Structures are given as structure tokens and as C-alpha cells.
TrEMBL record:
This is Cobyric acid synthase. Residues 259-428 form the CobB/CobQ-like glutamine amidotransferase domain. Residues 8-233 form the CobQ/CobB/MinD/ParA nucleotide binding domain. Keywords: Cobalamin biosynthesis, Glutamine amidotransferase. Pathway: Cofactor biosynthesis; adenosylcobalamin biosynthesis. Belongs to the CobB/CobQ family. CobQ subfamily. Pfam families: CbiA, GATase_3. GO terms for biological process: cobalamin biosynthetic process. Signal peptide: none annotated. The gene is cobQ. Catalyzes amidations at positions B, D, E, and G on adenosylcobyrinic A,C-diamide. NH(2) groups are provided by glutamine, and one molecule of ATP is hydrogenolyzed for each amidation. Residues 490-513 are annotated as: Disordered. GO terms for molecular function: ABC-type vitamin B12 transporter activity; catalytic activity. It comes from Actinomadura logoneensis. Residues 503-513 have a biased composition (Basic and acidic residues).
Length: 513
């Protein structure tokens, strides 16, 4: 294969399966001996990761790099947007924060960002046989097309063939695929080479007529139908994933089950921290938003947040703050991670992220927090419960500890634990020791499994997705797109106009209103 081949995986919506398909293609290509890298030009996500050289990128791109068998790099996600509210986001450029902007201010940065995006992609293509690019949201967001960096704007600038993924589990997949194509301008349509249907469960023979009609209407084939596979739990970048199977679990049964409630704060970040718990046999993980849902929990987790002070206010408004405080004072386990750790402090001084000044925390740990403009990015390591721990950290808030017992980089007071380290629970020995401690404090007979290796489960999931690509996609067609680009002469699909109510004969059985 000629070095520098590339394609763009676009989607009809957010959470259509772009990230998973990109990871699967990366792993499948790597199996063929192809040196492949992932790429997402612009990613809006609160799930991020730190590379070995201290750059912050989207967590999904980090996982895709693992799938490809290459070292994750800031080049793979040159622009990361981290929303702190409905209107403002932090711009992370090549792994470092450079500005806080609202939606209108962001436009002033577009030309600079476009240059970085195209340079990053060019550098990856020069160093690899193939780059699999992932789009963002939908390419049919026509209100955003003019300044687009991640979808058809990227495809046009870099001459990338495009495949569009649709999630059949949502319903209306044929309308979504056809409508996405039809809303694109002709020069954009010329790069769309085919479709992929994701999350199919049903009889293939019932789907076949629809595939044939879609091909007849658009002049483009469906390159594959990927079946539904529950339980993959690959790193997500959108909190929409919490509405799916990741958030669901069987009801708890007996004292041998450990029940974990993760508070779904509005600006939840790095919720992948608890994925390792969902893989532990006998642990039931639920995402919760009301005090009543905490009642039977053996462990409450306050996760990371991009808006610590605002999410703390939300806890108070919902009555969750009182419920968490009451259970902690009863000696029932609570774990705060990063932003959640900060919420457990006595006071939070924030003149930077929220501008709220000094506000009271929950007061469950002997700590104080101060926010500043400098962002801490790192890959720390240490020990806890006699077990080695490797983690990563991403935060503006600095936690000062004044008492309690050591817990990773934070502390423990009674059954309340706090740390700024993300990913600690992915360390198998530490996770088992922590869960055993929690179970003892909660009065459970739960014993953590001794044979769960989280890293191996992630590798198994990536292999499963690659197997699905191999078995259910037209891989020869994918290879042809990588070698030669989009076929010439693809037809333009005009958008459907409103019906001509004047010239159409009126049905005499339908009354005129």
C-alpha cells in the first residue's frame, strides 16, 4: 500500500458509532501489517487522556492509537474542545490549553486551527501507510459547514473519501443516511463513497430490500452492516454513551453484590474512570441523578467535572449534597475523583474556572482547593494498599491536604476517599484492594475477582470490533478507497423539496380544511 492513504468515517449523528468503527478499522489494518494511525481534527469531549509526553487528547483517539499499535500523539487530535458550560469551551491545541471561548469567539480562531489541523494530518500521513480519520457529530450540520474543520471541510481540503455510519438502533436509519447525503453540496457529495449501518439486530433478509433501494436512490453501496455487540465498553467521548448499555446493569442480588452509584453531574468528565468497575464480576454500576438512588449504594462515586463549582451547586439544588454528606458521616463509602475530589473539600477558591471566588465545599475531607490558570497534565505513579498504581491527571484545581490518611495523591477521612488521579481503578491489584476495603466498610460479603485484567479486556474488545470489520464490512472496497480515493462520477442526490400542493390533484375523500 502506498504511504499516506486516508479516509474519513463520518456519521449521521453523535454516538452513531464513528469512534468504535475507527478503532476497529485501525486494529483490522494493523493486523494486515499496515502502519496505521487514527486522527480526529476537532473533538468536543470531556473524556480526555494524557500522552506519554504530557499532551491532552481525546480519550477515544488514545484508544484508537492503542488499537493501531502506535504511540498516542497530540497530532492525532490537534484540536480538543472541553465545554465548561452550554456556551463556553476551553481550546486545547496540540495537547495544551490556549484559550477559553464562547461559540462566537471560536470563529476568530478557525484559520489558525485549520492550519494546525491540516499540518497535523499531513505529518501523520507522511509517517504512516494509512490514517483513519473520524468526523465529529454529523457532516450535515449545514449551519456549521462554512467553518467546518472535522467533517466535509477536512475531506475537501485533504481529498479524503468518506463513509457515513448510521445507527439503526435509533430508528430511521435509511432516512438518516439519505438525508445526510442529500443535504451536502455537490462537491462534498462527490467524496461520499458509501454507507455503513451500525448496531443491527434482526433478520438480514428483511434489511436487504432497503439496502438495494438506498443504493438505487444514491448510487452508493452500503459497505457493511455491523451487528449489535453489547458489553464492548470501549472508551466513549460523549456523555450520550451513558444513556446506552454502559449505564445499564442487572439489579443487585444479595450481600455478595457490590452496588456503586456514580453521580451524573451535568459537566461529567472522564466517566471512563469507572469502566473498570463495570468489568468486575459482582459489581453493579449505575449513573444517578436523585438522592433516592443513593439509598442502597455501597459506594458513591463523585466523578470528574469540567465545572466543579457549578456542578457542586447542582448537587445542592438536587438534594444530593445533603444525601452524600449524611451517608459519609454514617461511615458509608464515598469516592471523589478529580472534580469530585475537589467538591469534598472544606473550601474551593475559584477565580479562574467559574469566577465564583471562595465557596464552601462539602467539608468531608480535610482539604482546600484553589483554581488557577495553569493546567496540570501528567502521568503519575505510586502505590496504595501495597499495590502499584499508574494513572493520569488533568486539572486546574490544586488540592492542599491538611490531615486524614494518604490515598494516592489525596487523602482518606473515615470512609471518604479523594484523589485527582484518573485511571487508578484500571490497575487490577489496586482496584481489588480498594473494593475489598469498600465492601468491608459497607458490610458486604463481596470478594473482588482475582483474575480480571482490565487491559486484557480492552484488548479483547478491540479485537472483537476488528473481527466485526473483517466479517461484516466490504474490506476490499475499504482498501480500494484507501488506495485510490472516492470513485469518480458519483451522482449528486438533490434534496427533497416540499410537495407541490397546487398542481397535485386533490383526493376527493380528504376534506379541505
Amino acid at each position: 500500500m502506498t504511504r499516506g492513504g486516508a479516509l474519513l468515517v463520518a456519521g449521521t449523528t453523535s454516538d452513531a458509532g464513528k469512534s468504535v468503527l475507527t478503532a476497529g478499522l485501525c486494529r483490522w489494518l494493523a493486523r494486515q501489517g499496515v502502519r496505521v494511525a487514527p486522527f480526529k481534527a476537532q473533538n468536543m469531549s470531556l473524556n480526555s487522556m494524557v500522552t506519554a509526553d504530557g499532551a491532552e487528547i481525546g480519550r477515544a483517539q488514545y484508544t484508537q492509537a492503542l488499537a493501531a499499535g502506535v504511540e498516542p500523539s497530540a497530532l492525532m487530535n490537534p484540536v480538543l474542545l472541553k465545554p465548561g458550560s452550554d456556551r463556553r469551551s476551553q481550546i486545547v491545541l496540540l495537547g495544551r490549553p490556549v484559550a477559553e471561548v464562547d461559540a462566537l469567539e471560536y470563529g476568530a480562531h478557525k484559520e489558525r486551527l485549520r492550519e494546525v489541523v491540516l499540518d497535523s494530518l499531513a505529518e501523520l500521513r507522511a509517517a504512516h501507510d494509512v490514517v483513519v480519520c473520524e468526523g465529529a457529530g454529523s457532516p450535515a450540520e449545514i449551519n456549521l459547514r462554512r467553518g467546518d474543520l472535522a467533517n466535509m471541510g477536512l475531506a475537501r481540503a485533504a481529498d479524503l473519501p468518506v463513509i457515513i455510519v448510521g445507527d439503526i438502533d435509533r430508528g430511521g436509519v435509511f432516512a438518516s443516511l439519505f438525508g445526510t447525503l442529500a443535504l451536502l453540496e455537490p462537491a462534498d457529495q462527490a467524496l461520499v463513497a458509501g454507507f455503513v449501518i451500525n448496531k443491527f439486530r434482526g433478520a438480514a433478509e428483511l434489511l436487504a430490500p432497503g439496502l438495494a433501494q438506498l443504493a438505487a436512490l444514491t448510487g452508493r453501496p452500503t459497505l457493511g452492516v455491523l451487528p449489535w455487540r453489547p458489553g464492548l465498553n470501549l472508551d466513549a467521548e460523549d456523555s450520550l454513551a451513558l444513556d446506552g448499555p454502559r449505564a445499564q446493569a442487572a439489579p443487585p442480588v444479595g450481600r455478595e453484590t457490590l452496588r456503586v452509584a456514580v453521580v451524573r453531574v451535568p459537566r461529567i468528565s472522564n466517566f471512563t474512570d469507572v469502566d473498570a468497575l463495570t468489568c468486575e464480576p459482582g459489581v453493579v454500576v449505575r449513573y444517578v441523578t436523585t438522592p433516592g438512588e443513593l439509598a442502597d449504594a455501597d459506594l458513591v462515586v463523585l466523578p470528574g467535572s469540567r465545572a466543579t463549582v457549578a456542578d457542586l451547586a447542582w448537587l445542592r439544588e438536587r438534594g444530593l449534597a445533603d444525601a452524600i454528606t449524611a451517608r459519609a458521616r454514617e461511615g458509608r463509602p464515598v469516592l471523589g475523583i478529580c472534580g469530585g475530589h475537589q467538591m469534598l473539600a472544606r473550601t474551593i477558591e475559584d477565580a479562574y474556572e467559574s469566577g465564583a471566588g471562595t465557596v464552601p465545599g462539602l467539608g468531608l475531607l480535610p482539604t482546600t482547593v484553589r483554581f488557577g490558570p495553569e493546567k496540570t497534565l501528567g502521568r503519575p505513579s505510586g502505590t496504595a494498599y501495597g499495590q502499584p498504581v499508574r494513572a493520569y491527571e488533568i486539572h486546574h484545581g490544586i488540592v492542599a491536604v491538611d490531615g486524614g490518611e494518604p490515598f494516592l495523591d489525596g487523602c482518606r477521612a473515615g470512609a471518604t476517599y479523594g484523589t485527582t488521579w484518573h485511571g487508578a481503578l484500571e490497575n487490577d491489584g489496586f482496584r481489588r484492594a480498594f473494593l475489598a476495603d469498600v465492601a468491608a466498610r459497607a458490610g458486604r460479603d463481596f470478594t473482588p475477582a482475582s483474575d480480571v485484567v482490565f487491559a486484557a479486556l480492552r484488548e479483547q474488545a478491540l479485537d472483537t470490533v476488528a473481527d466485526l470489520v473483517d466479517e461484516h464490512l466490504d474490506t476490499a472496497a475499504i482498501m480500494a478507497l484507501l488506495e485510490h480515493g472516492a470513485p469518480a462520477g458519483l451522482p449528486v442526490v438533490p434534496p427533497a423539496g416540499p410537495p407541490d400542493l397546487v398542481s397535485r390533484p386533490r383526493d376527493p375523500d380528504v376534506p379541505v380544511r
